[in-house]
Here is the input.
Amino acid sequence: MVSMKNLLKPDYYFKSLYDIDINWLKELNIKNLILDIDNTLVSWGTKQIDERGQMFINNLLKEGFRVCLLSNSSSKRVKNFINNELILYYTGFGIKPMKIKFLGALKLFDNKIDETCVIGDQIFTDILGGKRVGIKTILVDPIDSKEFLQLSF
Here is the structure.
């Protein structure tokens, strides 16, 4: 049985999403990424992805990664982050850390738990949710201090 302490401990930590090296992810055999939006990819409440975030996702896709955006925001808002030229999965109302949307993302990734990683800024939503379904987790610092509900310390 996994202890609560281990469920709240990320496997890896980076200051920013943009500090994560794509080649390092490949060395870990990661092929699928579940990516949080608010304060991970963009500042909380931002309506669309910025150029830097778009380039990051484009590079991931170009390198063969499959990406699912998973947010507790509405599906309509999350859809705004999808460029029609990109093939990305997305889901809103993620109710993180509940397992259901993480399992849905895993299904999109052919249930390849060992090849999937979640990246997010919140321990009690992103990290806990990823740990509950057995995938690798990467914690990043929030982009901004503004948050709908502060869930990390």
Summary: The longest strand covers residues 66-70. The first helix runs from residue 4 to 7. Strands lie at 12-14, 32-35, 66-70, 89-91, 116-120, 136-140. The chain has a mean pLDDT of 85.
